[in-house]
């Protein structure tokens, strides 16, 4: 697998090796040993995954920006198995030099890319096609009492969502009630 570092420390893009022939293609979607080696080379802790999630979204659906607080912070290894999505991680680690910065990457069934988002990041995505199926492995279980979210369109974060003119953007009531980034910064003050 090919590991691509991003401008934000600890966020990684993973490109699995694809083996194609006249029958189709094959890839290892996850290999614990290779994942650990990639993280160890970067002096990062290799997590244990405890839960897999799978969602289906129609074009224009935004999910996020979600995260869980201590003691149940979640790291996520995410990928798209059908369709396309613009996936975004926001650094919410208060001691990080990139605190408040975001990074986005297109994940699709065609490019097979995966995105490693460790604990300490808010995460969200925009479905770029109908019937986009999103899979993610998490390092902790879902705990409603630890769930938090940031406003996906917060002007302070200024995330460049690739919203096209033919796209009707929709999001959940919960995401509509999300806090601004300023609220999160005040929590750390």
TrEMBL record:
<comment type="pathway">
    <text>Carbohydrate biosynthesis; dTDP-L-rhamnose biosynthesis.</text>
</comment>
<dbReference type="InterPro" id="IPR011051">
    <property type="entry name" value="RmlC_Cupin_sf"/>
</dbReference>
<dbReference type="GO" id="GO:0000271">
    <property type="term" value="P:polysaccharide biosynthetic process"/>
</dbReference>
<comment type="similarity">
    <text>Belongs to the dTDP-4-dehydrorhamnose 3,5-epimerase family.</text>
</comment>
<dbReference type="InterPro" id="IPR014710">
    <property type="entry name" value="RmlC-like_jellyroll"/>
</dbReference>
<dbReference type="GO" id="GO:0005829">
    <property type="term" value="C:cytosol"/>
</dbReference>
<comment type="subunit">
    <text>Homodimer.</text>
</comment>
<protein>
    <recommendedName>
        <fullName>dTDP-4-dehydrorhamnose 3,5-epimerase</fullName>
        <ecNumber>5.1.3.13</ecNumber>
    </recommendedName>
</protein>
<feature type="site" description="Participates in a stacking interaction with the thymidine ring of dTDP-4-oxo-6-deoxyglucose">
    <location>
        <position position="142"/>
    </location>
</feature>
<dbReference type="GO" id="GO:0008830">
    <property type="term" value="F:dTDP-4-dehydrorhamnose 3,5-epimerase activity"/>
</dbReference>
<keyword id="KW-0413">Isomerase</keyword>
<dbReference type="InterPro" id="IPR000888">
    <property type="entry name" value="RmlC-like"/>
</dbReference>
<feature type="active site" description="Proton acceptor">
    <location>
        <position position="66"/>
    </location>
</feature>
<dbReference type="Pfam" id="PF00908">
    <property type="entry name" value="dTDP_sugar_isom"/>
</dbReference>
<comment type="function">
    <text>Catalyzes the epimerization of the C3' and C5'positions of dTDP-6-deoxy-D-xylo-4-hexulose, forming dTDP-6-deoxy-L-lyxo-4-hexulose.</text>
</comment>
<dbReference type="GO" id="GO:0019305">
    <property type="term" value="P:dTDP-rhamnose biosynthetic process"/>
</dbReference>
<feature type="active site" description="Proton donor">
    <location>
        <position position="136"/>
    </location>
</feature>
């Amino acid at each position: 697998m090919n590991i691509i570092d991003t401008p934000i420390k600890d966020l990684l893009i993973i490109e699995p090796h694809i083996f194609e022939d006249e029958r189709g293609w094959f890839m290892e979607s996850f290999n614990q040993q290779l994942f650990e080696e990639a993280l160890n080379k970067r002096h990062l802790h290799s997590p244990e995954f405890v839960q897999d999630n799978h969602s289906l979204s129609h074009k224009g659906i935004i999910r996020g920006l979600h995260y869980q607080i201590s003691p149940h912070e979640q790291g996520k290894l995410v990928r798209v198995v059908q369709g396309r999505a613009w996936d975004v991680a926001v650094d919410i680690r208060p001691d990080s030099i990139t605190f408040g910065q975001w990074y986005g990457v297109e994940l699709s069934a065609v490019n097979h890319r995966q995105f490693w988002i460790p604990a300490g990041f808010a995460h969200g995505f925009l479905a770029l096609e109908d019937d986009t199926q999103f899979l993610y492995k998490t390092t902790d279980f879902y705990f409603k009492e630890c769930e938090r979210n940031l406003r996906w369109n917060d002007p302070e974060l200024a995330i460049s969502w690739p919203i096209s003119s033919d796209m009707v953007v929709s999001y959940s009531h919960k995401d509509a009630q999300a806090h601004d980034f300023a609220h999160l910064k005040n929590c750390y003050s």
